[in-house]
Amino acid sequence: MQVEQISVFLENKSGRLSExxxxxxxxxxxxRALALADTSDFGVLRLIVDDNEKAVSxxxxxxxxxxxxxxxxxxVADRPGGLHEILEMLKKNDINVEYMYAYVRNSGQNxxxxxxxxxxxxxxxxxxxxxxxIIGGSRLYTM
Amino acid sequence: xxxxMEYETMPREALEAIQLRRLQTTVERVYANVExxxxxxxxxxxxxxxxxxxxxxxxLPFTTKQDLRDNYxxxxxxxxxxxxxxxxxSSGTTGQPTVVGYTARDIQTWAGLMARSLMAxxxxxxxxxHNAYGYGLFTGGLGVHYGAEMLGAxxxxxxxxxxxxxxxxxxxxxxxxxxxxPSYTLHLAEVCEEMGVSFKDLKFRHGIFGAEPWxxxxxxxxxxxxxxxxxxxxxxxxxxxxGVAIECKEAKKGLHIFEDHFIPEIIxxxxxxxxxxxxxxxxxxxxxxxxxxxxxxxxxxxxxxLNPEPCICxxxxxxxxRVTGRSDDMLIIRGVNVFPSQIESVxxxxxxxxPHYQLIVxxxxxxxxxxxxxxxxxxMFSDEVxxxxxxxxxxxxxxxxxxGVSAKxxxxxxxxxxxxxxxxxxxVDNRKL
Lengths: 143, 433
Ligand SMILES: [Zn+2]
Hints:
Largest sheet of chain A: 7 strands, antiparallel
CATH topology of the largest domain in chain B: Rossmann fold
Bound molecules: zinc ion
CATH superfamily of the largest domain in chain A: VC0802-like
Oligomer: heterodimer
């Protein structure tokens, strides 16, 4: 049920982010979600794309350090408090969220959030048992 | 087996008596025959008669590579040219090359020391030696060659290059010993693989590798790929050539320096004071038997330490550690000597890999500030910022613990460090002193 995310190491200097998006555009890869975490020295770019293999090899060939991580895509009710409910429930059950960001969907009503958990299987078990909708990789890219 | 049992296992006291006698003779000879040394000794107000004990060696002035260049080509020779039977020269990557000469007796001495070295590395009379060191002005090829012949082994003077032909010779002639630089050896292994030749089917048992710095990791790789036991050999043309020091195959832990011919010292490259056994500093050699080209306290610029502990092989000669760097690269940060190679081993120990790195020194007010830039490898990388920050902290903490200096560690992108002609620029010193 998990989704594979790729991450890229970036130095904090201007133009690096557009370098990455440029390489992906040239390779014909569609970026579906993106989040940048940065410090004063460096940043980590996290990406959900429609072809991980192609994206990773294109970025590596251009000299970037690239990693892959499993994350979880969850449907969140599109109303006030929708996200809060999930976070409260996770907290109560001691599931730690390392970070999260929004996924851009083309259709449908509910929002989709990408979660990075330290314990992915436990988080998936809990979310499913509580009736949340988890979206797997192949379905995610079509949404 | 030990080639020269008498000298290689001589008790220290007897060895030191021989060293003193030979040192006195050498000092007298250079004073009488080499204008450069006579001038330097007079400047230091010291005469050959002042050398009464080995301890007096430290009163003699140092000799540097620049001194050799200033006396290019034959100014440092201590015999007339009609006594010189061989000339070698070091490749001068910057400036003038240095030229060295040998008398017939020097060639004999050198061959004897190379025979000792080959035997310490596992070679004996019946072996076939594949000698892939370059023949020519470089001392490597001919140095090994004469030693192999003196040992009574069969030597194949294959020299460097034409790697596919070398593989054919290795298959057809069945050499049992290989002598080469570690980097060429790994290249040879690659070509073998391309040609479908397995080292398991070749007859190699031992390899003697040197002429460039290498690491324990490389030793493990060479031993695994070539299916043999690998030892390190050390030498430099200014002192003699290969065969100044050799690792014994029994311990593979440091290189025995042939102290009946060379007196080693370790000095602090900054204060030039001799350092006690065990401390890391610059290696300095005085030759005590060479006729044509003796050197007095020659600064090698190589960084290592000396270990006087007895060795399981039975040799009594002191062991030098692997050369870990060059003193030209030394930085003094807040009074502490820092070698890039030390930072490199911290990175190796904490990260399990040796990434490209660069040391940047700035002066902020009265303080030196050291920044270590490290290229992020896939092994170190994480999608979590806090883990990357933890990597920076771990490296910084180890540097503080092991070297005693505070350093700010900064992760950078691969290729983020300037390369100059393919080599990473290791040190950027921005201090205006
Ligand atoms: Zn030994």
